[in-house]
Amino acid sequence: MLPIVHRQPWSFLLALFAYSLVVMFCPPSAYAQLGKPEGLYYKSWAIVIGVENYLLAPKIPGAIEDAKAVAQAFRQLGFDEVVELYDKDVSFRRLQQTLSDFLPRKVGRHDRLVLYFVGHAGVTQDLAGKELGYLVPWDAQMGNVSKSVTFEQLKEFSRRSASKHTLFFLNAAVRGWEVSTAQPLSLEGRLAPEDDTERRAVQVLTAGDKGESLSQENGRSLFVQVLVNGLSGMADRNKNGWLMASEVGDYVKQQVLERSKGAQHPVFVQLEGDGDTVLIEGRKAAFIMGAEPQSSAERRQAAKMQYEQAFALLQTGKSSKEALERLNKSLEYDPTFGDAYVLKSYVLLEVLPNLDDALSAAKLAMQYAPKNPDSQYTLGLIYEKRGQYAEAERAMREALVVNPNYVDVYFSLGILYADEMKDQPKSVEAFTRYLELGGNHARARAAVVQSPPAASVTPAKP
User: Fold this and answer.
1) What is the pTM of this model?
2) How does strand 44-50 pair with strand 112-118?
3) Max alpha carbon distance in the chain (Å)?
4) What is the CATH number of the domain that holds 95?
5) Among 16, 43, 103, 361, which is 20 to 30 Å from 384 by CA?
6) What CATH number has the domain bearing residue 299?
7) Tens digit of each residue's pLDDT (9 = 90 or more) over 230-282
8) In this structure, are residues 174 and 123 in contact, taking their beta carbons and an 8 Å threshold?
């Protein structure tokens, strides 16, 4: 339990206040100077490449229209830079310059990069007999690998790119890469999303597997229609507000397979790292993976995890609103979790004041955590703020029954008797016991020193 120190200058509340001052008066540029973005990314880049009217290869009707729909989807996601390259701008030389010079110079280590390509692609074999996929630029012939961009070049580009998250959407039926062992995705559900989203990721989603024909619906690419829907949020299957590349991959694979009646099999691959590109950032409190806990034991464990995260947030001076959300989630998992009610009542008393809700939480804390003295103590503080002084005294005395040496309760009783109930003898009794237990607040010392000798007696223990 966080220390509840009533009116003490070194209280946790003042620590929270000090943190709020730091946040208020430190300009955002300070964070940039430390090399850490305020959000998940400093900058988000989308490179949209579409070739419809090839110089030496067959035309792909509707390719540019589809590419523009994807570019608009990235703009709606809030990407900072959406670079569109179509037809003649997708020459072999221009593609090489984009991958080897422009993007490495522009994209930083805290950036997100998504590259979409629609055009001809193929699969050949390297000298060792391994499959090698390639993308065909505007001015290349089909099968001319030397004038194409191979997957090995894409992998080399991704290794040289500083971006922590790189995602390729390839609207082509192609494969031909070596991948490491599949990583468990998504990252949602780990304890600290702000840490897990730092993990590097290079990911690829293709429209189909090698040699497949790409389906259309109503004259437009099925893959693009499904992809755009997924990027709009429909791929967020667990509806937690976070949209991850792995979720988009699963959604596109399932939707395209069904709507093509099994003719088209998109492929999603983790090329490097165990990270997961974030396409829509939700609330950190909702960063939870997959199905909700089902068994009683799972729900109790989930409740404990949410409680511990809320406690850590408050201790470190981070989002108190998120801490309250986590406490509510904890109590949703386990409505009998007494310590969560105790902490919730404290938050609603001192951090996010709401006396009515604080009182409700404190009463439930009394019911489910009667052996935690903070249940009674917090209830007493709430009653005091509500002007119910007799009830406040009774609750604090009950806290001393549970823990007769709870020094902060004696100090709070001393204040309550002196300022609200105008009972100086009882105030001196409480302050005396507070000092005997090691308290050193100046007000308690002054009250005891200035009291008549008869009043300076050791109070009876409750």
Assistant:
1) 0.57
2) parallel
3) 107
4) 3.40.50.1460
5) 16
6) 1.25.40.10
7) 999 999 877 778 889 999 999 999 999 999 999 999 999 988 888 889 998 87
8) yes
